[in-house]
Design goal:
By secondary structure, the protein is α/β, with parallel strands linked by helices. The chain has nine helices and ten strands. The protein has a single domain, classed as Ribonuclease Inhibitor (Leucine-rich repeat, LRR (right-handed beta-alpha superhelix)), CATH 3.80.10.10. Strand 1, helix 3 and strand 2 form a beta-alpha-beta unit. Helix 1 runs antiparallel to helix 2, helix 4 packs parallel to helix 5 and helix 8 runs parallel beside helix 9. The longest helix is centred in the N-terminal third of the chain and has 19 residues. The radius of gyration is 22 Å and the shape is globular.
């Protein structure tokens, strides 16, 4: 795996970029001033990265700020990364219209196996439509993180793309606002992802009805080793509905049911829920 390293050559290139910025930056706190500075950062970062572009297979840009045209500026550079296999764009304040500028580029990354777009601002039907365009062209993904993007019930738009990802082993849909209606669409698709080893549905709004919809599909994911469904406000009925499916997950080593409304009692030495 090739990454952007910290060799003397790399550090020297970075030093030149920031020396230029230090010399030419307009130190203003106005929105316009910040925008000018950010465009300069993107421009010089793109120039720097072009020297390494063909050999990069793993690109980690998490926890940067892609607001103020960052995504638009980066798209041409991303398009030239022909060997990219893993990309992390999490925690970058990316909204659906900014994701649109990257969607056509990401959709052409045939070698991509890992995509992390977690903790951005991709919301509602507009965000779901853009994600749909991307995911439909990525059947080879093994890792997908869309957590903390409030897609909610519009997850139904993602099912076609997800159903083709039969190689997927890691899926993180934590805190996406998925409720009962969303689970009606998502559960049949989930049942097809039989190679999944890790599934995170923490802090959605499944409740008991959503758990009941999830249960039949969950029982088919016999390769799961980690399952996180805490914080879904499920009652006793929802957990009872999951019980038969959980008994089929013989490889499970990690189970998180925390922060659900489950009453657990010990009666005569036996666990009763």
């Amino acid at each position: 795996m090739t990454t952007i390293g910290t060799s003397p050559t790399t550090l020297a290139a970075f030093a030149k970029v920031f020396k230029y910025l230090e010399k030419h930056t307009i130190y203003r706190y106005t929105k316009k001033g910040n925008l000018i500075l950010f465009r300069r950062v993107c421009k010089h970062f793109n120039t720097f990265i072009l020297n390494y572009i063909q050999c990069i297979t793993y690109l980690d840009l998490n926890n940067n700020d892609f607001r103020h045209d960052g995504a638009f500026s980066f798209a041409p550079t991303l398009a030239r990364m022909s060997n990219l296999e893993l990309i992390d764009l999490s925690s970058n304040y990316i909204k659906y219209y900014e994701l649109e500028s990257l969607s056509s580029v990401l959709a052409k990354k045939s070698k991509l196996t890992s995509l992390n777009l977690g903790n951005n601002l991709i919301k509602n039907i507009e965000g779901a439509k853009t994600l749909k365009q991307i995911l439909q062209m990525m059947p080879n993904l093994t890792f997908l993180n869309l957590s903390h993007n409030e897609i909610a019930e519009d997850i139904k738009l993602l099912t076609d793309g997800l159903s083709k990802m039969t190689n997927l082993t890691y899926l993180n849909f934590r805190e996406m606002g998925i409720g009962n209606d969303g689970m009606k669409s998502f559960a049949p698709t989930l049942a097809k992802l039989t190679n999944l080893k890790s599934l995170d549905l923490t802090r959605n709004v499944l409740r008991a009805d959503g758990m009941q919809l999830l249960a039949p599909s969950l029982g088919k994911l016999t390769n799961l080793t980690s399952l996180e469904i805490g914080g879904n406000s499920s009652t006793l009925g929802g957990v009872r509905a999951l019980a038969p499916s959980l008994s089929q997950l013989t490889q499970l080593t990690h189970l998180d049911l925390s922060s659900n409304d489950i009453k657990v009692l010990f009666i005569y030495g036996k666990l009763k829920v």
